[in-house]
Design brief:
Largest sheet: 4 strands, antiparallel
Oligomer: single chain
Order of helices and strands: EEEEEEEEEE
Number of helices: 0
Helix content: under 10%
Strand order of the largest sheet: 3-8-5-6
């Protein structure tokens, strides 16, 4: 287990830091290869969704992350994080995922570290599904 570096908000191993993006309180930082974040989302309608990640990275990271279902199958494929200019300079990256209806446990797998994430949000893609949002870190 890697010790928490951003533990001023809470001391349970989740690396959170104060965030300067609009509307942001805290972001998840100190990402490292092999770590992950789990989220539970409720999907009202099965369909294809566009998932948007609000990210920051001073150098950019190729194949930074992927979104997986509860059995570990990649839903998004590799997602790269662009060079945004700094740890608090934010950009949005997107991927399409297909989700069944019902409660889903999704994992954001950190394939290569060096980026921060503020949130992920889901919206219907191509007229399918209905909007849903994963919770922000708390």
């Amino acid at each position: 287990m890697v010790p928490a570096l951003g533990d001023s908000y809470r001391s349970d191993g989740v690396d959170l830091e104060t965030c300067t993006d609009t509307g942001c309180g805290y972001d998840l930082g100190w990402t490292a290869t092999g770590q992950w974040f789990k989220y539970t989302v409720n999907v009202a309608t099965a369909g294809t969704y566009t998932v948007s990640f609000r990210v920051a990275s001073p150098n950019g990271v190729t194949d930074a992350l992927h979104l997986a279902n509860s059995v570990g199958t990649s839903l998004s494929g590799a997602i790269s994080v662009p060079d945004t200019g700094g740890w608090q300079d934010w950009a949005t990256v997107t991927a399409n995922v297909t989700l069944p209806a019902g409660q889903q446990t999704l994992t954001v797998d950190q394939d290569n570290g060096g980026w921060n994430v503020y949130y992920m949000a889901f919206s219907a893609a191509s007229g399918t599904g209905s909007a849903l949002t994963a919770p922000r870190p708390a």
